[in-house]
Amino acid sequence: MKRHLYSLLTTPLLFFALGAFAQAPDTGAPPAGGPPPDGQMPTGAEFIARLDTNKDGVADKTEAAADPRFAGDFDKIDTDHDGHVTPQEMTTFFAAMGAPKPQGG
Ligand SMILES: [Ca+2]
Ligand SMILES: [Ca+2]
Question: Would the pTM of this model clear 0.90, i.e. be above it?
């Protein structure tokens, strides 16, 4: 009885999942500030490259303003406090974010 109900519930879900895979959304450009369309985290270099409007290879505070979350963490990410976030600093920050954190942090 329970198994029958389960299959009734999962079958439409399975169709839905397959349909989602079959027709990828053709939105063109990714949403501003959002993750890339493949759902993967950008690397530090990719993230900086997206914000680096003057193409000097680093993101300054003006450029950081395009991403409010990044702007909020700017001083934390800019570990040498030179006013620029380098791809390396961004990569280090991403690594710290992805690393398991101790409880209570
Ligand atoms: Ca720049
Ligand atoms: Ca820096």
Answer: no
